[in-house]
Amino acid sequence: MPAVSADTLTLPRISGATIDQTDRPVRSVTTGPRGHEGEGFPVVRAFAGVSQRALDPFIHMDQMGEVEYQPGEPRGTDWHPHRGFETVTYMIDGRFQHQDSTGGGGLIENGATQWMTAGSGILHIETPPVELVESGGTFHGVQLWVNLPAVDKFITPKYQNLEGKQVTLLTSQDGGALVRLIAGDLDGHVGPGATHTPITFAHATIAPGAELSTPWRTDFNALVYVLSGRGSVGGRAVEGGQLVVLGAGDRITVSADGSQDSNRPALEVLLLGGLPIREPIAQYGPFVMNTKAEVIEAMEDFQAGRLGIVPPDALRPHRVRR
After folding, report:
1. What CATH number is given for 9-296 in this structure?
2. I need a surface site. Which of 26, 58, 113, 292 has the fewest CB within 10 A?
């Protein structure tokens, strides 16, 4: 269950459709394959099989978990570099620790988001806190990579910490959906995340039988990722682990089936969109640049220690002694 909840009767309602607005049609529905990241935590590769043109300005997204860890099972990533984009780590439920070479970091938990602008280069680590490794517990989150245009790829790295209580909460016309607006604009409401590339990033919980219809910027692309549950997007049936790419239009409509599984009491979706950058992309692992030469330069800078230094008090992945 998502950590951030609210009584929708008290929240601002997203405006209904007007006669001149049209729903965005479904272009494709893909199912993300399951894999493992870092030292072995389970992920769904949400964008697998989707063209970069359809995703732009997004590069990559993993759904981390949802998993109930036993003691000693939680895993994270060790120190690694990034350059040329922003990473967004949203913890739907559970806890994760972050630290980077600029001094940014902290505990990301229960609906919080860390927004790291890698820019010219940064080193960081994301790992479960000691108490989670020792005792086990729930782990469920999302990591999204947002591209930067060429003019911003070498900006100074930056870190934002957004607590769960800071998100903008909205509801649908029927009051059956809770929308957590993390970044961007939705029907005139603004989320707390500050972004270099204009995007909208929101998490919606839609009760069984309810519908969420929301305006969407016509110059943005539009993606809906199903975290869990069953329903429909633009009239097309969807379920957990699927990504919907939408075409041109004014609104996005998502409906929850009237019956959901007992362990999935509602339809959980991410709404994603942004202003396409439309520039060449050269990516190799943690570097997202415009040319192969820039990627090689990033690798050389990392090897020479020019992307940052691991601090003396650095976090390290915790291991349970047996």
Report:
1. 2.60.120.10
2. 292
